[in-house]
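User
Please review the sequence:
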Amino acid sequence: MDYLNDQAPGAPIRSGIPEHGRIPKYYAVKAHISLLVDELGEGGLLPTERELALRYEVSRETVRQALRELLLEGRLRRQGRGTVVAGPKLEQPLSLASYTEGVRRQGRQPGRHLIGLDRFPCPEAIAAEIGVPRGEPVWHLERVLLADDERVGLESTYVSVARAPELDTGFDPDSSFYAYLHDRLGVSFGDADERIETVLATPREALLIGTPPALPMLLLHRLSRDTEGRPLERVRTLFRGDRFSFTAHLGRRG
């Protein structure tokens, strides 16, 4: 197999060309448009589907398929009736750092839009995870995650009312829940278990985040504990697959 001398780290080998050398027509067009994307830079306006079809001598459906993949990969984004080059993906560390800290480190302004803060008797499944008896009051905090006013995710947090009794009156829903627990309640995070999977958003979730239902999402489940090992919160967060990537530092054990 021949390797490119300027092969970028993490890039597909031979740009995704199979060993038999035959590639789908849409993929060849996608490669050409990718080069155009690099030339235009962030915010650059892409030519119309008709113009691209004429430029590459293919059908508009072939162009449309290439654009769909670049949109799903986060290289492009829709703006009004046009398509523009998207900025780099947000990198969210897999750590006990909050969403707020992760976004700020990249020079973006984090924000949240409150969907609802409800108090209800804790169901059995959640009770077992956050360490309260079934039926005890629990908070459900649901917020849309923002980065520079762009909707990028949806977060659902469950915490017992006993751990945060004045959440409905003493907490600013646009701020960091972690900071509130630490600064106002003196609660520090000790450790957490996380699981990540790819999913499609439900129609309601897609509407709240402002994405097509077919856009892949990164779903993060987190169960956090305080420094004494007691369960603290259960979080379910959807991140846009075209706007987020996750990073982790792995240390040697033993």
